[in-house]
């Protein structure tokens, strides 16, 4: 998404050439390959562990919830997990920061209309990315290091935020930009638009 925004704003006339079908397929293939290798290795490392407990501290089961139930040394799992988290978030932050620095450079030399369009295009990604990364960091490190110190209600909130709120927020932030979806929402709730305005009224 960061690369797509970068090309869209910094190279608008070459967008269709750069973001061709082959480029999109390569990006998708890279994402899928990374996920298969990373999570496949996680599963293999976890599969070898004998379990000596049955209490899961989350409202859903994930890899670390199973690893912490093992009665043997899990240092390899811990090191690999922290490495993958650091690599994923580090790479993600570098790519996003680079793309937005380049976008800001273009905006600094452009008109107010271009700046407004860039903000409209980039803000949804920033909102969803910040929300996802914040929830992920809390979810990962909270249960890895201080799972029983934090109150249960807060742990429940973080789990729900990571599991439920993030996907819903993505759908809302990106979906509401579609005029067809907005029209259906307004129709569902019997809302009408004020003529000449983007704001609805009841």
Number of helices: 8
- H/E element order: HHHHHHHHEE
Count of all domains: 1
Number of beta strands:
2
Low-pLDDT runs of 5+ residues are 193-198
Report how far the terminal alpha carbons are from each other. 35 Å
Give the class from helix and strand content and strand pairing.
Answer: mainly alpha
Question: Quick one: overall form?
Answer: globular
Give the proportion of residues in helices.
Answer: over 70%
Beta percentage is under 5%
Strand order of the largest sheet: 1-2
Q: What's the rounded overall pLDDT mean?
A: 77
What does the largest sheet look like? Answer: 2 strands, antiparallel
Radius of gyration: 22 Å
Pfam families: 7tm_4 (PF13853)
Subcellular location: Membrane
Organism: Xenopus tropicalis (Western clawed frog)
GO biological process, one term: detection of chemical stimulus involved in sensory perception of smell
What does this structure look like?
With 202 residues, the protein is mainly α. The chain has one domain. The protein has helices spanning 2-10, 15-18, 21-47, 63-67, 75-108, 112-145, 152-175, 179-188, and strands at 192-193, 200-201. Helix 1 packs parallel to helix 5, helix 3 packs antiparallel against helix 5 and helix 5 (75-108) runs antiparallel to helix 6. The longest helix has 34 residues, at 75-108. The radius of gyration is 22 Å and the shape is globular.
């Amino acid at each position: 998404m960061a690369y797509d925004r970068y090309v869209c704003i910094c190279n608008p006339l070459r967008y269709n050439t750069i973001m061709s079908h082959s480029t999109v397929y390569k990006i998708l293939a890279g994402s899928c390959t990374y996920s298969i290798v990373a999570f496949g290795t996680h599963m293999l490392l976890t599969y070898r562990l004998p379990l000596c407990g049955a209490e899961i501290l989350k409202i859903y089961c994930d890899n670390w919830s199973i690893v912490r139930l093992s009665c043997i040394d899990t240092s390899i799992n811990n090191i690999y997990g922290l490495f993958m988290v650091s690599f994923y978030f580090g790479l993600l932050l570098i790519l996003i920061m680079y793309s937005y620095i380049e976008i800001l450079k273009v905006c600094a030399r452009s008109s107010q209309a271009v700046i407004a369009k860039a903000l409209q295009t980039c803000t949804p990604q920033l909102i969803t990315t910040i929300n996802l990364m914040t929830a992920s960091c809390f979810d990962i490190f909270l249960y890895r290091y201080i799972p029983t110190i934090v109150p249960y209600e807060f742990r429940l909130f973080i789990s729900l935020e990571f599991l439920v709120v993030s996907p819903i927020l993505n759908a809302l932030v990106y979906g509401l930009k579609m005029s067809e979806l907005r029209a259906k929402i307004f129709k569902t709730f019997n809302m009408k638009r004020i003529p000449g305005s983007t704001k609805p009224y009841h």
